[in-house]
Design a protein that fits this description.
The protein has one domain. The chain is mainly α and about 110 residues long. Helices cover about 80% and strands about 5% of the residues.
């Protein structure tokens, strides 16, 4: 092989290596872009879920406010106690002793 052919061969190999390096950089850029898109999609999903949970919490608070308002305006103790239980649940999970006017467990 002559000097000219060797130089041509070397130049071709150098050009091939440069093309390969460009290809690898492009692949890396595409992978980074795909990763960024996935991260953005995941963040959007989490944000949507958090908004839904927040909306549910607002609904619960709104219902509790309505019950508390009814408690304030209710006249009889049975209605008041029933509405109170809807908001806050039972005092305890066993029958209640109300002999002393409290909500103590029996």
């Amino acid at each position: 092989m002559g000097a000219g052919e060797a130089l041509d061969c070397f130049n071709q190999k150098a050009q091939d290596a440069s093309t390969m390096a460009d290809y690898i950089r492009n692949l890396q850029a595409m992978q980074n872009l795909e990763s960024n898109i996935q991260n953005t999609a995941n963040t959007a999903l989490v944000n949507t879920q958090q908004l839904a949970v927040g909306a549910q919490q607002i609904d619960v608070v709104t219902q509790q406010e309505a019950v508390v308002e009814a408690l304030i305006t209710a006249g009889d103790a049975v209605t008041t106690a029933t509405l109170y239980k809807k908001v806050f649940g039972d005092c305890c999970d066993v029958p209640q002793n109300t002999d002393n006017g409290g909500c103590g467990c029996a």
